[in-house]
Specification:
CATH topology of chain A: Four Helix Bundle (Hemerythrin (Met), subunit A)
Strand order of the largest sheet of chain B: 1-2-5
Radius of gyration of chain A: 21 Å
Number of domains of chain A: 1
Oligomer: heterodimer
Structural class of chain A: mainly alpha
Number of strands of chain B: 5
Structural class of chain B: mainly alpha
CATH class of chain A: Mainly Alpha
Number of helices of chain B: 16
Distance between the termini of chain B: 22 Å
CATH architecture of chain B: Up-down Bundle
Largest interface: A-B, 45 and 55 residues
Shape of chain B: globular
Bound molecules: protoporphyrin IX containing FE, copper (II) ion
Largest sheet of chain B: 3 strands, antiparallel
CATH topology of chain B: Cytochrome C Oxidase, Chain A
Strand content of chain B: under 5%
CATH superfamily of chain A: Cytochrome c oxidase, subunit III, four-helix bundle
Helix content of chain A: over 70%
Order of helices and strands of chain B: EEHHHHHHHHHHHHHHEHHEE
Distance between the termini of chain A: 58 Å
Shape of chain A: elongated
CATH class of chain B: Mainly Alpha
Chain lengths: 216, 567
């Protein structure tokens, strides 16, 4: 807190000494929050591991019902969106406000594509009677616990989808702020920490895809 | 003009700073309580001190609700058969008592209420890292509470605070409202933890190195780590349970091919660490109060600081000791039993260091210190009986008896709540600028101590003789123990009413406290009582440790020289 008497730039909140301290603090906060997210999904992954260990044959049979092609497309879409969000941060660092806005919009677009594909996948399952839990009526899988696989599938992908939706909201909010000209190479903390969050959402999908779709 | 060589946390490199002494005013004009007034200003404030007080108010309210339920439960147990309420009502009452006391009182009590108030002050910071998030955490807590009250008005809840499946998937009470409430509440806890970790890392005043961090902050730091790592697992557990009831997903329900023991694993993976979310901050308060009233450097600073982290770590590995009789494998049981013994070690290290701190100190028997002695006595019993429960052969007999009830009340109420009271009486003059009546406060502390032991000591005895936990009726043999216990609970009730009375009275007619009534060296005492909006009217600079009672007071009141007033 050395340079206390130098004037505060407007984006620095009153309880920080300078912009750097504010940036570091926000970033640390986001990392801590991401650790919490990993533990949150960790619970579901744990349920997945246990049931897979108990019923390995069920997981093989049930995975065949999932559409690997669309799953793979969605993986590419999300990885692409991670790239564009990284480019958005890069643009902010280089004071390229136009690039920032365009990259944010592309990211939102890709996230929406992901959601639409996911929606079609869900709709297809529902048509077959593959509902979660006790509403499950599908007869195509000859296993007494078939419903549990899909319960886990819906929980994992559902909770992930909620994260995607929250991400879309956040990125849109960042876009609006970018439009108002709030960011520059001096101040782009919210862009950076939203980007961190988005990378995690992407990373979780990268685990979900092979664990659910690619079981051999 | 003096200079001091210190490391500012923001850069981390050594620097020579110009400092001067800032003596806090004894009669402050502008304080955080006077600068913005009115309900709306309070509700929208981002000031950590006001948010702390808002938590304090809510925690007190919930303690009142939980406490009344406890007295009703104890009254019902005056006679072996029905005394005045139905068995179903009894089930609801003990469930709500447990859930409210754990989730709404003890978990937020020290970190969110007292911690919010003192953490930035002990760091010499103006606020927590994310003040708006801090306010959001409070409202998330309130929303979680509303959900729980909807359940109350709507069939109640009778599963026990542990929500064990399969009963919780079948019960006709409002399980979903409460699980959603707990889910929401969890985020409040997670966000507070996140905020505290970032604050402790990044917002320390120049000179506060890790080795000069008050032990209260080491404790809150360890607590925050547990909050961030364990609470999300509770969140996913109650989410799965919610889905279990709403959609029948079958993961925990044996009727659908699921596994109820898996639920217990999930639940205790959070809930054992959660007992340390309650206990570790208590340890922090004890370290602060015991040094202030012994006027002596703490014995074993690093041992106490690091044992908090050790407890946080080992605490994650012992959850299976709640499941010794659940049918988990014999190997798992043995390992969990061994690890449970292990967690006693860092806790024992703390207790011994506190006692060593007293040795040759000039001990002043003020109210907070009396609570510390109560704590040392009661918590030690709680800890030792925990080790007994961790012993396999003993636990098979004692599991689900009143012995367990007595054990966790000795640690949760005797440990956390009593140190919460110690902290409340210790920081009350700082928070309000007023002194309470010392004599009445001592009477209150004595009533709590006597009432507590009268209530819970008999429970150890009847538990070891086989009185099961959560029973509405009992055989005649246990009458005397239950009646003694009930009388003790009334003494406790009177004690709490007395505390509420003199604290409320001190707000109106208490004497002025002055900036540092206890002569503490802690940084939070080197400003006015109550502090102003920015906590300090300068940027504090720290050259001594927080327990360096051999150094003169002037050296604890330093701040950057030549600073503009406006910051
Ligand atoms: C420090 C704060 C502590 C708190 C707040 C606490 C709280 C609790 C609670 C709430 C239960 C009851 C669980 C149930 O519903 O069955 C319990 C049981 C138990 N506690 Fe603790 N505890 C603490 C410390 C300890 C320690 C230090 C040990 C041992 C070293 C320990 C060992 C046990 C064991 C073995 C049980 C299981 C008893 C049984 O279910 O048969 N606890 N504790
Ligand atoms: Cu435990």
């Amino acid at each position: 807190m050395a340079n206390h008497s130098t004037s505060h730039p407007t984006h620095v909140h009153h309880h920080f000494v300078d912009s750097d301290q504010q940036f570091d603090t926000a970033k640390l906060g986001m990392w801590v929050f991401l650790v919490n997210e990993i533990l949150f999904f960790g619970g579901l992954f744990c349920a997945y591991i246990i049931y897979r260990a108990w019923y390995p044959e069920l997981f093989q049979m049930a995975a065949l019902e999932l559409n690997t092609f669309w799953g793979a497309v969605n993986t590419v879409v999300l990885i692409g969106s991670s790239l564009t969000v990284a480019m958005a941060i890069r643009s902010a660092q280089k004071d390229q406000m136009k690039g920032l806005k365009i990259n944010l919009l592309i990211t939102i677009g890709l996230a929406l594509v992901f959601m639409v594909i996911k929606g079609f996948e869900y709709a297809h399952k529902f048509e077959l009677g593959i509902f979660p839990g006790e509403y499950y009526t599908y007869e195509g899988i000859d296993h007494p616990q078939a419903a549990i696989f899909f319960s886990i599938y819906y929980m994992l992908t559902g909770v992930h989808a909620v994260h995607v939706l929250i991400g879309i909201g956040l990125i849109y909010w960042i876009y609006l702020r970018a439009k108002k000209g709030e960011f520059s190479s001096e101040y782009y903390t919210p862009v950076e920490i939203t980007g961190l969050y988005w990378h995690l959402v992407d990373l979780i999908w990268i685990f979900l895809f092979p664990l659910l779709y690619l079981i051999e | 003009m003096l200079t001091a060589e210190v490391k500012p946390a923001s850069t981390g490199t050594k620097k020579t700073l110009k400092v001067k002494r800032y003596k806090p005013s004894e009669d402050p004009k502008n304080t955080y309580l006077t600068d913005e007034k009115g309900l709306w200003a309070w509700m929208t404030t981002v000031d950590h001190k006001k948010i702390g007080l808002m938590y304090l108010g809510s925690v007190t309210f919930f303690f009142l609700v939980g406490g009344i339920l406890a007295l009703l439960l104890r009254t019902e147990l005056l006679t072996p058969a029905k005394t005045f309420i139905e068995a179903d009502t009894y089930n609801q009452f003990f469930t709500l008592h447990g859930a409210i006391m754990v989730f709404f009182v003890l978990i937020p009590s020290i970190p969110a209420a007292l911690g919010n108030f003192v953490l930035p002050m002990q760091l010499g910071a103006k606020d927590v890292a994310f003040p708006r998030l801090n306010l959001a955490s409070f409202y998330i807590y309130v929303i979680g509470a509303i959900f729980t009250f909807i359940a109350l008005a709507n069939n109640g809840l009778d599963t026990g605070w542990t929500f064990y499946t399969p009963y919780s998937t079948q019960s006709s009470s409002s399980v979903i409202w409460v699980t959603i409430g707990v889910f929401i509440l969890g985020f409040s806890s997670i966000l507070t933890g996140t905020n505290f970790i970032a604050t402790i890392h990044k917002l320390r005043a120049p000179g506060i190195t890790w080795g000069k961090l008050p032990l209260n902050l080491w404790a809150l730091y360890a607590t925050s780590i547990i909050q961030v790592l364990a609470t999300p697992v509770l969140a996913i557990t109650v989410l799965l349970l919610t889905m279990e009831r709403a959609l029948g997903i079958g993961i925990f329900d044996p009727a659908l091919g699921g596994d109820p023991v898996l639920f217990q694993h999930f639940f205790w993976f959070y809930s054992h660490p959660a007992v340390y979310i309650m206990a570790v901050p208590a340890f922090g308060i004890i370290s602060e109060v015991i040094t202030t009233f012994s006027k002596k450097h703490i014995f074993g600073y690093w041992a106490i600081a690091l044992s908090s982290l050790a407890i946080a770590f080992i605490g994650f590995l012992v959850w299976g000791h709640h499941m010794f009789t659940s049918g988990q494998s014999a190997v798992a049981t043995t390992v969990f039993s061994f690890l449970t013994f292990l967690v006693g070690i860092p806790t024992g290290i703390k207790v011994l260091n506190w006692v060593a701190t007293l040795y040759k100190g000039s001990i002043e028997m003020k109210t907070p210190m009396i609570y510390v002695f109560s704590f040392l006595f009661i918590f030690s019993i709680g800890g030792f009986t925990g080790i007994m429960l961790g012993t396999l052969s003993a636990d098979i007999h004692l599991h689900d008896t009143y012995y367990v009830v007595a054990h966790f009340h000795y640690v949760m109420m005797g440990g956390t709540l009593i140190s919460f009271l110690a902290g409340l009486h210790y920081w009350w003059p700082k928070m309000t600028g007023k002194m309470y009546n010392e004599f009445q406060a001592k009477v209150g502390a004595a009533l709590i101590f006597i009432g507590f032991n009268t209530t819970f000591l008999p429970q150890f005895i009847m538990g070891s003789q086989g009185m099961p936990r959560r029973y509405y009726n009992y055989i005649d043999q246990f009458t005397i123990f239950h009646q003694t216990s009930t009388i003790g609970s009334y003494i406790l009730g009177v004690g709490f009413l007395l505390i509420a009375y003199y604290l409320a009275k001190s707000l109106k007619s208490g004497e002025k406290a002055g900036s540092n009534p206890w002569g503490s060296r802690g940084l939070e005492w080197q400003t006015t009582s109550p502090p102003d909006f920015h906590n300090f009217d300068h940027t504090p600079v720290v050259i001594n440790g927080p327990y360096d009672y051999h150094r003169p007071m002037e050296e604890f009141q330093l701040g950057l020289a030549n600073e503009d007033k406006d910051h």
